């Protein structure tokens, strides 16, 4: 397994590989890998000749009061896990190499990014789209795999690929959960023991929504009320949002008629967690 730190060297390597006829699979990450990331690597591994994973904590997707400095990092552990999963190249750049001091060009999606996490994290998805566009230009993947846990991000990347004609196929990887149902996240590390137990309310609230929908309740207002009641009983839970949106357009809905994405963000202390489920009746 090779580790490449220079953006120019990364691009040169994949150009050589593509000229030789190799297909490239890609999994972008911010490191501190867990089973969710590894499942995406296994999915990508099955689609390509050469698998590239990037590890880059992207500074431009963090707001001024967010956890950039506290974001967990452990490159040696990540390197071992990548090698175990059959990754051929780890792209491990630093911010200085990725962003010129006078950088002034950004990629900004203007519709899907207005809601959900985009409403409470202004500028976040501009940072995501910009770095993913740069990574696509440097890695030149034929296939890139993104996880469903970051549902809004996934749909925004799919829209960016469509609208800007990136020659890459986006593959969706399912959410991977802990044994008790908590969605795997690098930020789970920051939870105290009590917060870790409290955080299970995300999954339980989604389960209640699913059960109500399957029993015939189609009113978003009624389902959301039950979800709020459950989360408000949890001592340290601070709701950011619970939203019901069309799975394709991310427009708000008031009835479960078409496939609906139920997405929520909840803070436990300083740790903000997200989860989601698509309900199809």
From TrEMBL:
<dbReference type="InterPro" id="IPR003721">
    <property type="entry name" value="Pantoate_ligase"/>
</dbReference>
<keyword id="KW-0963">Cytoplasm</keyword>
<comment type="pathway">
    <text>Cofactor biosynthesis; (R)-pantothenate biosynthesis; (R)-pantothenate from (R)-pantoate and beta-alanine: step 1/1.</text>
</comment>
<comment type="subunit">
    <text>Homodimer.</text>
</comment>
<feature type="binding site">
    <location>
        <begin position="184"/>
        <end position="187"/>
    </location>
    <ligand>
        <name>ATP</name>
    </ligand>
</feature>
<feature type="binding site">
    <location>
        <position position="61"/>
    </location>
    <ligand>
        <name>beta-alanine</name>
    </ligand>
</feature>
<dbReference type="GO" id="GO:0005524">
    <property type="term" value="F:ATP binding"/>
</dbReference>
<feature type="binding site">
    <location>
        <position position="176"/>
    </location>
    <ligand>
        <name>ATP</name>
    </ligand>
</feature>
<dbReference type="GO" id="GO:0015940">
    <property type="term" value="P:pantothenate biosynthetic process"/>
</dbReference>
<dbReference type="GO" id="GO:0005829">
    <property type="term" value="C:cytosol"/>
</dbReference>
<keyword id="KW-0436">Ligase</keyword>
<feature type="binding site">
    <location>
        <begin position="147"/>
        <end position="150"/>
    </location>
    <ligand>
        <name>ATP</name>
    </ligand>
</feature>
<keyword id="KW-0547">Nucleotide-binding</keyword>
<feature type="binding site">
    <location>
        <begin position="30"/>
        <end position="37"/>
    </location>
    <ligand>
        <name>ATP</name>
    </ligand>
</feature>
<protein>
    <recommendedName>
        <fullName>Pantothenate synthetase</fullName>
        <ecNumber>6.3.2.1</ecNumber>
    </recommendedName>
</protein>
<feature type="binding site">
    <location>
        <position position="153"/>
    </location>
    <ligand>
        <name>(R)-pantoate</name>
    </ligand>
</feature>
<dbReference type="GO" id="GO:0004592">
    <property type="term" value="F:pantoate-beta-alanine ligase activity"/>
</dbReference>
<dbReference type="InterPro" id="IPR014729">
    <property type="entry name" value="Rossmann-like_a/b/a_fold"/>
</dbReference>
<keyword id="KW-0566">Pantothenate biosynthesis</keyword>
<dbReference type="InterPro" id="IPR042176">
    <property type="entry name" value="Pantoate_ligase_C"/>
</dbReference>
<feature type="active site" description="Proton donor">
    <location>
        <position position="37"/>
    </location>
</feature>
<comment type="similarity">
    <text>Belongs to the pantothenate synthetase family.</text>
</comment>
<feature type="binding site">
    <location>
        <position position="61"/>
    </location>
    <ligand>
        <name>(R)-pantoate</name>
    </ligand>
</feature>
<keyword id="KW-0067">ATP-binding</keyword>
<comment type="function">
    <text>Catalyzes the condensation of pantoate with beta-alanine in an ATP-dependent reaction via a pantoyl-adenylate intermediate.</text>
</comment>
<dbReference type="Pfam" id="PF02569">
    <property type="entry name" value="Pantoate_ligase"/>
</dbReference>
């Amino acid at each position: 397994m090779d580790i490449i730190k220079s953006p120019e060297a990364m691009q040169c390597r994949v150009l050589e590989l593509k000229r030789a006829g190799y297909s490239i699979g890609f999994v972008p990450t911010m490191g501190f890998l867990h089973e969710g990331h590894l499942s995406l690597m296994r999915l990508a591994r099955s689609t390509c000749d050469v698998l590239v994973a990037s590890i880059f904590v992207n500074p431009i997707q963090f707001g001024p009061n967010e956890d950039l400095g506290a974001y967990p990092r452990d490159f040696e552990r990540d390197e071992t896990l990548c090698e175990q999963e059959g990754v051929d190249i780890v792209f491990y750049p630093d911010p200085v190499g990725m962003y010129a001091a006078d950088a002034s060009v950004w990629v900004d999606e203007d519709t899907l990014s207005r809601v959900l996490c985009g409403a409470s994290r202004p500028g976040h998805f501009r940072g995501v789209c910009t770095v993913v566009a740069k990574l696509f230009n440097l890695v030149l993947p034929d296939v890139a795999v993104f996880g469903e846990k970051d549902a809004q991000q996934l749909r925004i990347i799919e829209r960016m690929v469509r609208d800007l004609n990136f020659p890459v196929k986006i593959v969706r990887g399912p959410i991977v959960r802990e044994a008790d149902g908590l969605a795997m996240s690098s930020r789970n590390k920051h939870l105290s023991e009590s917060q870790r137990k409290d955080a299970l309310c995300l999954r339980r609230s989604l389960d209640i929504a699913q059960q109500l929908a399957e029993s015939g309740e189609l009113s978003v207002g009624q389902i959301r009320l039950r979800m709020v009641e459950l989360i408000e009983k949890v001592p340290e839970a601070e709701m950011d949002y619970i939203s019901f949106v069309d799975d394709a357009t991310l427009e708000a809905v008031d009835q479960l008629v078409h496939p609906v994405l139920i997405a929520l963000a909840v803070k436990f202390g300083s740790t903000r967690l997200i989860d989601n489920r698509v309900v199809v009746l």
